[in-house]
Amino acid sequence: MILRIGLALAIAASGVAVFLLLNLPLPWLLGPMFACLIAALGGLKLKGPVFLGDAMRTVLGVAVGASITPDVVARLPDMAVSIALIPPFILLIGLVGYPYFRRVCGFDNATSYYGAMPGGLQDMLVFGEEAGGNVRHLSLIHATRVLIVVSALPLVLTYVLGRSLDLPIGAPAAQLPFHELALMVAIALFGWWAAKRVGLFGASILGPMILAAIASLTGLIHSRPPMEAILAAQFFIGLSVGVKYVGITWSELRRVVVAAVGYTVLIGVLAVVFAEGVVLLGLAPQAEALLAFSPGGQAEMTVLAIVAGADIAYVVTHHLTRIVVVIIGAPVMQKWLR
Fold first, then answer.
1. For residue 151, how many C-alpha atoms fall within 13 Å in the half-sphere facing its CB?
2. What SS3 state is found at 75?
3. CB atoms within 10 A of CB 46
4. Distances (CA, A) of 177 to 171, 207, 225
5. Chain-centroid distance, C-alpha 229
6. Cα(217)–Cα(202) distance, integer angstroms
7. SS3 label, residue 162
8. What is the tens place of the pLDDT at every residue in 32-62?
9. Measured on CA atoms in the order 35, 41, 45, 47, is the torsion positive or negative?
10. Pseudo-torsion of CA 78, 84, 85, 88, nearest 10°?
11. Best CA proximity match to 224, nearest among 180, 288, 287
12. Which of 177, 178, 188 is nearest to 212 (CA)?
C-alpha cells in the first residue's frame, strides 16, 4: 500500500511539473488529476492517501469560512431567490438523468437514480449501495462528472468569460501572524473531528468551515489559509479524482464512462441555462452564476472560485444547498428503489 501511495504522489508531482513547464492553467489541481488519470488508464496500481487527502480538504473549509464576513452575512437575503432555484434545478437533473441511465444506458433503478443525483461522491456511494446499486458504476459516474466539469470550467472561465485564473489564492505563510496560523490549524482539526462525531456530511469541509466562519465573524481571523496550504489542497484533490479510475476495464470504459460523459453534457446544458437565467435576473455575475450551478464537487468548485477571484460565499452557499437537497431526498427514494 505504501508503494502504491508513493507512486501516486510521484506521478501527481510529475503532473504539476508538466503543467508548470507548459504554462497550463491550474497546475496544482489539473496536473495531478490528469497525470494520475493517465497512469490509472495505463494499468498502474495507484492509491491515494485517504486520510491526508481528507485533511487537505479542511484547508478549503477554513478558506470558505474565513471568507464569511459580516458584509457577506448582510448579503444573504439577496441570495435567497438564486438559492431557491437549486431545488427545481435538482428536480430537472433527476428528470433528465434517471431516464437516461435507466432507459438509454440500461442500469438498474438504484444505480440510475444515485448516478443521476449530483451529490457528494461518498454520500451517493453509501446511499446507492444501501439501495442495491452498483458501487463501482456509481464511483465511475461521479468521478467522470467531476473530471469533466473541473476540466471544462477553467477553459470557459478563461476564454469565454475572460476571467484570469492566476489571481493570488492567499498570502504566503511567512506573511501571516503566527497566532492566526495556529488558530486555523486548530479550527481545521477540531472542526473536522466534531463534524465527524455528529455525523455531518462532508465533515472535512463543513466542520472547519462553520468554526472558521465564527472566528471570522468575531474578528479572530482576518485572512484565508496560506498560499502553500491551498496549493497542497489542490494537489491532493486532483490526485484523488485521478486515482478513482484505477482498475478500470475496457468494458467499464465503453459502457459506464461513456454513459457518464453523455450525462454530464446533458446536465451541463441545464447548468448553463440556469446560470444564464440568474444573470438575466440580475442575481449574480456570469462567473459566479456558472460556478454556483456547475455540477462539480464542492471542494473542486471552491478551488475554482478562489483562483478565479469569484464570490466564494455565493458559490459555496449554492453547492451546500445542492448537496443538502440531494441528501434529504435520498431517504425518501430509498424505499421505492429497494
1. 16
2. helix
3. 25
4. 11, 23, 11
5. 17
6. 22
7. coil
8. 999 999 999 888 888 888 788 888 889 888 9
9. positive
10. 180
11. 180
12. 188
Which of 3, 42, 35 has its CA nearest to residue 16?
Answer: 35
Would you report the helix, strand and coil content of the chain in percent, each value rounded to 5? 75, 0, 25
Within 102-214, strands assigned E span: none
Count how many Cα atoms sit within 13 Å of the Cα of residue 233 in the half-sphere of its side chain.
30
Q: Where is 246: in which H helix or E strand?
A: none
Look at residue 21 and tell me whether its pLDDT is greater than 90. yes
In this predicted structure, the answer to whether residue 191 has a pLDDT above a threshold of 70 is yes
CA-CA distance, 316 to 68, in Å (whole number)? 10
| Distance between CA atoms of residues 64 and 306, nearest Å | 9
Cell numbers representing residue 19 in the block: 503543467
Q: Quick one: pLDDT at residue 224? A: 84
Q: Report d(CA 239, CA 293) in Å as an integer.
A: 24
Task: Note whether 215 and 65 are within 8 A (CB).
Answer: yes
- How many C-beta atoms lie closer than 10 Å to residue 54's C-beta? 16
| Neighbour-count burial of 338, counting CB atoms closer than 10 A to its CB (0-12 exposed, 13-18 middle, 19+ buried) | exposed
pTM above threshold 0.90:
no
